[in-house]
């Protein structure tokens, strides 16, 4: 009686093939999971930044009145930054004024306005926390400083460049 120990070459190749198929399918799921996680993180950061900018504007540390800007949420170089006016009483907020907090966003994420062609630059809030019209200077992709209008009550859409999922804010 001859007792067989171990695996045959064919059995081993079948096992290696099955493990290879599982690894390939698992990596595809992992890429989609990472893209969705980036989008979820950016969405949470945007919501937090909007709420922080609004609350800082309501706090109105510089004492602006009417429809003057008391707080800004600005987006540049994959960073959402919350700004308030300078220490001068009555000083309006701009994207170059004091930054309260910065939220880093993945370089794969793009934030667009409702038109889907314009990139999001900023949102301005008055001392009541309402969105107001404001023109600010921002640095564009070419490194030039340009004046842009801040978004006015327009839905924002986050797009993961590598994926197809979007989220809209109103």
Topology overview:
Elements: H1 9-59, E1 71-76, E2 79-84, E3 99-104, E4 109-112, E5 122-125, E6 131-132, E7 135-139, E8 145-149, E9 156-160, E10 166-169
Antiparallel strand pairs: 1-2, 1-5, 2-3, 4-9, 5-6, 7-8, 9-10
The major sheet is characterized as: 5 strands, antiparallel
Structural class: alpha+beta
Low-confidence stretches: none
Number of H- or I-type helical stretches? 1
The best one-word shape is elongated
Spatial ordering of strands, largest sheet: 3-2-1-5-6
The average pLDDT score comes to 81
How much helix is in the residues? 25-40%
Distance between the termini: 78 Å
The secondary-structure element order is HEEEEEEEEEE
Q: What does the radius of gyration come to?
A: 25 Å
Multimeric status of the protein = single chain
Tell me the strand percentage band.
25-35%
Q: Count the E strands.
A: 10
Protein name: Type II secretion system protein H
Subcellular location: Cell inner membrane
Membrane topology: Single-pass membrane protein
Keywords: Cell inner membrane, Cell membrane, Membrane, Methylation, Transmembrane, Transmembrane helix
Describe the fold and architecture.
There is one protein chain. The protein starts with 8 loop residues before the first helix and ends with a strand. It has one helix spanning 9-59; strands at residues 71-76, 79-84, 99-104, 109-112, 122-125, 131-132, 135-139, 145-149, 156-160, 166-169. It is 30% helix and 28% strand. The chain contains one helix and ten strands. The protein is an alpha+beta fold and 170 residues long. It is elongated and about 100 Å long. A five-stranded antiparallel sheet has the order 3-2-1-5-6, covered by helices on one side. It has a three-stranded antiparallel sheet with strand order 4-9-10, with helices on one face. Its main location: membrane. It is a single-pass membrane protein.
């Amino acid at each position: 009686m001859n007792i067989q120990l171990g695996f045959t070459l064919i059995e081993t190749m079948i096992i290696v093939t099955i493990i290879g198929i599982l690894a390939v399918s698992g990596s595809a799921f992992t890429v989609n999971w990472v893209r969705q996680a980036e989008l979820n993180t950016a969405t949470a950061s945007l919501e937090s930044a909007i709420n922080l900018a609004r609350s800082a504007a309501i706090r109105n540390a510089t004492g602006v009145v009417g429809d003057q800007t008391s707080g800004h949420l600005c987006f540049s170089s994959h960073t959402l930054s919350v700004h308030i006016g300078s220490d001068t009483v009555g000083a309006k907020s701009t994207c170059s004024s004091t930054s309260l907090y910065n939220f880093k966003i993945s370089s794969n994420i793009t934030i667009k306005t409702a038109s889907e062609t314009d990139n999001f630059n900023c949102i301005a809030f008055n001392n009541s926390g309402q969105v107001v019209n404001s023109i600010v200077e921002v640095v564009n992709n070419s490194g030039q400083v340009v004046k842009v209008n801040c978004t006015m009550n327009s839905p924002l859409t986050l797009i993961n460049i590598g994926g197809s999922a979007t989220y809209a804010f109103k």
